[in-house]
Amino acid sequence: MKKNIVKAMALGMAAMMMAGSLVGCGEKKEESEQKEESAEGAELSGKIALSGSTSMEKLCEAMSESFMEANPGVTVTVEYTGSSAGIESLIHGGTDIGNASRNLEDGEKESGAVENVVATDGIAVITDKENKVKDLSSEDLVKIYKGTVKNWSELGGEDEDIVVIGREAGSGTRGAFEELLEVEDACKYAQELDSTGAVLAKVASTPGAIGYISLDAVDDSIQSVALDGVEATEENILAGEYKLSRPFVMATKGEIEKQNDLVKAWFDYINSEEGQKVITEVGLILPK
């Protein structure tokens, strides 16, 4: 009997020790998992550099702010140098991502740039608010930019000279506008300005002026002119009814999957629910 009691006590002690050991292992495993999760959360750190299109400023600023809020260890910097300059910088290793408000050219692709379309934007034709011409045909718009129509009275407006405003050479907005209207190297500009904001301000303050800007930049300082009877709206662009629309491209040197972890995380975020929300909130259209 005594032997049985001693044996039972020994077995009980062994069971308690084993249970304690299992609890200890469980605690260590849980602690290890927590450390691993913590390490994963802190893993994303460093800098991402973007450069290029001025038309993409609103998108880049909003996306950068949202991305850095989600990833406090990462700093995103953006330079607005124009589409062509941004892609050139990408090709020569000066930036992680090259922003272009147009499709990439064959030569750029041959140099290793890969086109990643993140959104679609419309190009609005704008005039000063006092202009009585509210609608233009594509044909008349071409004539204005080629310089064969020089006065608004020829289009049903006031007897007022047309002041043709455009973007500088290398601008993605200019490249897309001229390509869509088939007026490359044929435009007669009174002034060529180096940013979307500059065109907006100049047209707003110049009687008789006409210009073109990104749809998301349109505000109440100017009026947006309908083209072929179709207004520049997201709905009309999605329906394929408005002629002047172009892609917003964030190009990489090589495919996205070959980029560093930070750049891959950037594109993962753009394609996430949060990133897609940023795109629509700044007035752009999600790519099909």
What would CATH call the class of the largest domain?
Alpha Beta
> What is the approximate shape?
elongated
Overall average pLDDT? 88
Q: What portion of the residues fall into strands of 2 or more residues?
A: 15-25%
Domains counted in the coordinates: how many? 2
First-to-last CA distance: 83 Å
Helix content: 40-55%
- How would you sum up the major sheet? 11 strands, mixed
Let me know the CATH homologous superfamily of the largest domain: Periplasmic binding protein-like II
CATH topology name of the largest domain, in short, is D-Maltodextrin-Binding Protein, domain 2
String of helices and strands:
HEHEHEHEEEHEHEHEEHEHH
The CATH architecture of the largest domain comes to 3-Layer(aba) Sandwich
Q: Which residue ranges are poorly predicted, with pLDDT under 50 across at least 5 consecutive positions? A: 1-41
Task: Give Rg in angstroms.
Answer: 29 Å
Counted by DSSP, the helix tally is 10
Structure characterization notes:
There is one protein chain. Strands 1, 2, 3, 4, 5, 6, 7, 8, 9, 10 and 11 form an 11-stranded mixed β-sheet that branches. This protein has 2 domains: 46-120 and 247-281, D-Maltodextrin-Binding Protein, domain 2; 122-245, 3-Layer(aba) Sandwich (D-Maltodextrin-Binding Protein, domain 2). The protein has helices at 2-43, 57-70, 83-91, 106-110, 138-146, 172-181, 196-205, 234-238, 261-270, 273-281; strands at residues 46-52, 74-80, 97-100, 113-114, 117-127, 135-136, 163-167, 191-193, 209-214, 223-227, 245-253. It is elongated. The termini are far apart. It contains 10 helices and 11 strands. Helix 2 runs antiparallel to helix 10 (273-281). With 288 residues, it is of the alpha/beta class. Helix 6 (172-181) links the parallel strand 7 and strand 8.
